[in-house]
Give the backbone structure.
Amino acid sequence: MAAGPHGTPTLRDVAEGAGVHAATASRALNPATRGLVNAETARRVMKVAETLGYRPNPMARGLKTAKSGTIGLVIPDLTNPFFPPVVRGIEEVLEPAGYSGLIVNTDNDLLRERTQVDLLRSRQVEGLIVATALVDHPLLEQLHRERVPMVMVNRRPHGFDVPSTVPDDAAGVALAVEHLAGLGHTRIAHLAGPTTTSTGGVRARAFRNAVRDLGLDDDPRLTVVCHRWSEDAGAEGLRTLLDGDAEFTAVVAANDLIALGCYDVLSERDISCPDDLSVVGFNGMPFLDKLGPPLTTIAIPHQQIGAEAARLLLDAIADPTRSARSVLLPVTLVVRESTAPPRRCAGAVR
Amino acid sequence: MAAGPHGTPTLRDVAEGAGVHAATASRALNPATRGLVNAETARRVMKVAETLGYRPNPMARGLKTAKSGTIGLVIPDLTNPFFPPVVRGIEEVLEPAGYSGLIVNTDNDLLRERTQVDLLRSRQVEGLIVATALVDHPLLEQLHRERVPMVMVNRRPHGFDVPSTVPDDAAGVALAVEHLAGLGHTRIAHLAGPTTTSTGGVRARAFRNAVRDLGLDDDPRLTVVCHRWSEDAGAEGLRTLLDGDAEFTAVVAANDLIALGCYDVLSERDISCPDDLSVVGFNGMPFLDKLGPPLTTIAIPHQQIGAEAARLLLDAIADPTRSARSVLLPVTLVVRESTAPPRRCAGAVR
DNA sequence: ACGATTGCTGCAATCGACTGCATGATCGAC
DNA sequence: GTCGATCATGCAGTCGATTGCAGCAATCGT
């Protein structure tokens, strides 16, 4: 067990073991420079490295090359079931490429976001995958100006071009509306996400387009904007909808959390789903099939979204001049028991 | 904007700006060595560092000090809702201490676990927080021998002493059984977790103890071991229970996922919960209150478990000689609608 | 008033890997 | 048999921060 004073074998240990200079060992071990070394010598060095269990010290390497081999993942809250699969998708791509992800949670707090990104940058991350909510974002703009390689997931940037991977929101909403229309609903409500997020806006617009395309009642009173992507906000949204005077027999929630908020109001007001009201979610988070009733939703490929984002980022790092590309991923309708034909003579639901 | 050729200001830039040597600047900036420097000089250096936006390069620092400021988090699957809150609890403690967590997923695969831990070690993590399932684990033993600072979450190590933070499993199970007994159940079944995990064993033993303590029917046929902590395994477990000839009116699942598996079987066989069968889960994962029916469960303080684990690890890093301390965290019973008194003349459920 | 202590700062080596440049060896060509 | 080309390897400096040691000045004690 030849090893340096610190226990782990160093490049010099390997070089010594192979009877060559550290420089030669370095070249032999690096596939890109291996050609510079005699094939036989290279083989020998590699064998010694192998038996010694040599691991290049990423700090020493990073110090010299100014590369850390890490990527910062900026997400609002890991506890939101949306993100873990996305993270796994990201790591699935990053790992084989020799990168690791550093996760930070911002809780959608602007200040916290800033300090967390600072933290990441001080850790020398080579790029950022950003999943935060806000669409108009001075910090993002600043990072973009500073040429920090960056990709957005699930959100589109506003003014400047940054690569992004997003689900096909418009198609998803259309799927939901068509499904409800097919069941016979004509007055469908929408609980929109915050307008401060691109997703909220896109889905709301897609909703009205779908309603119009199908010739359903296009009543502006049937769209209520939730101020957050949360159960609470969803509950509040449905309450104002119910307390309004517009009739509706179905609601398309801008995401599953908002739909879950609806469930709270339903039991609170003793409204039956799907008998009195059909509900459709969006995102396809886990365990939706165990709800009472199981929630019909638009499933999106979380893992793929992450994987694509990671690929885009690696591309951007490899070639910073490449223009921003964005990926739109297909979504699917998952029909469960929260949707059904409207009752014969459904009036205003209250 | 004075800065080095790479854009980010270096220690020498600061030193130059303050008219001192880099060594002095280093000492002035490090709180531990600041006393060695003239107070006025230190102030000046710090001000220059501030205005320059100086960030010490963690790689250079790490190279010299052989510390990376990172901790490895070894978890089975981030997608399992159990872990995200634990991770947040961990980071909540790690961050103020200047550490970052590097997350890897093992999918409970022994080989993958090994390569992932190798990855972490090659990234020079200063310690490991391990949440993997297996109780007899050559890799863990090896790490322990190699003196890698390490803490386990939610599991107790088998042969050797490693600090750990676990929920009070025994108390939780007792709470569940008492709750059911209080409702009038006398024949209570247990869907145990894998015996390869300490948690599985502990909860199963606690179950039998609780049943005996309360003078309920202690029938060995009423305990079935699930071979994994998953919905599938839970479903399978309940099926064998139902297909057996022992009567029971309630079931304590070793965790929520197993309880969710029960829900599948209930609808599959048209058994009503809680009318025909009461079900109690364990862990208190999110959205359980939205299920049909909302699941009664034992809530455990996920975030606290993580935070305590991180604290233990920081202690272990600071003083490796300190003996292993373990923390037991209190759990609470959350009563919802999956439990009710048994029907008057409940026979065998089938 | 002189040697000794204390306080502050600079010098230079170090951590481990990378890399431009130079040197040495080998071989072919004329 | 010598010269130049090619190939392989070694040398030494570099990345940025840290730290033992030395040096210098101011202060103290007697």
Summary: The first strand of chain B starts at residue 70 and ends at 75. Chain B touches chain A at residues 6, 55-60, 62-63, 66, 68, 77-79, 81, 83-85, 87-88, 91, 95, 100-105, 118-119, 121-124, 260, 263-264, 286-287, 290-294 (CB under 8 Å).
